[in-house]
Fold:
Amino acid sequence: MRTEKDTVGEIKVPDQAYYGAQTQRALNNFKASEKPFPEVFIKAYLLLKKACSMANADFSKLEKSKKEVLVEACERAESMREQFKVDIFQAGAGTSFNMNVNEVVANVAAEILGRTKGDYSQIHPNDHVNMSQSSNDTFPTASHIAVIWKADELLEVLDDLAEAFKEKSREFSEIIKTGRTHLMDATPVTVGDEFGAYASVLKRAAGLLREGRDMLLEVPLGSTAVGTGANAPEGFKDKALEYLSRFTGLPLKRSKNPFEALQSRFGLSVFSGYLSELAKELNRIANDLRLLNSGPVAGLAEIKLPPVQPGSSIMPGKVNPVMAECLNMICFRVIGNHGTVSAASQAGQMELNVMTPVMTTSILESQKLLIKYLPDFQKLCVEGIKADKERCRNLLLLNPSLATLLSTDIGYENAAKLAQESLEKGIPVPELAVEKKLISKEKARQLFKNTYDIEP
Structure:
């Protein structure tokens, strides 16, 4: 162990640790989840520190030699994932994590300079690594970058899933079946119509996610503690963002209003809302697939989901829609995470919303779950779905709602009576309508045979 000191006093730190006193205090204080921040966020933060070091050197706040050491230290620290240990539930505003980064970079810099860990005489965590910055502007900036990176991954996955549903829509375009509203029989649709709608809504959800993603390109870096840019040189914002855009590959922009950018987490909340809406639609689609697959004897059984594993420990041969069930549970988590984000978004007070850490980790978890699972759902479920054409036709044949197609010829009330009689006698509507001479066989053929391949 080595002894380090901060403004609170002395504290013991493991000798092999690259973090320092403030990180150690956070490790002692915050143990709720035992989960550190994800790698994508650590990478974003280190690139931010690198960009700020270069910008500070451009304005002669930081000596060129120290800048070079800091740049190298930031790059080395990217491979030191285990040194960023602060719990995701920690001090507000992410101060503990910001200091974790500052201390790791400072100690790596000390080693580069041939000094021991804990020797901050040349490169200090606050004075040099954190120069022209605050946790209040750096944490949300890194949050936006990490969320955007993961959004790009998610959008690619989502586009692939939508295309898989579109392909199924084409495959099932001529399989006519009973439509359902209120879970009751309704006028016919094709299985392709249903799957095309799934593809359509996923593309719509992806469009909203892209809008939310682009909103996050505005970042508050350079606003420092309360939005005034105190302790940062004139022009620092633009120069730091220029470097950071180059390092991240993103066209980052300075916040239109730096005070709003610290007070409000509007962008993160909106993006999380779009994730929640996506989850609701995925949940609905998963439920549809489970219902359409239900059976094999006593359910709808209009489609067959691929069997991927046994479904019961007691009922031999039973197969369950496990991929859809897993998607349901993931969607519940994403929706729940948005509840957390919504509450945290409202918790801003005066010049700062200090709840950004829980917002960031909730959104990143939601993205990770969807990114990791949706390709498996596509491959192991969607792409292998089969439609039972005969089952769909047989159910359609006895659908009393076919009487809807006769209402313009025989009137709504007569069509309703016909539908009821068809249901009671088990005689298909087209056959019954011709038998009762309500329409001619030629008219019935025109309405039913040509449209739905149902012989009157």
Strands lie at 2-5, 10-13, 176-181, 184-190, 218-219, 253-254, 303-304, 386-387. The domain at 2-131 is CATH 1.10.275.10 (Fumarase C; Chain B, domain 1). The chain has three domains: 2-131, 137-232+250-389, 398-452. The chain has a mean pLDDT of 96.
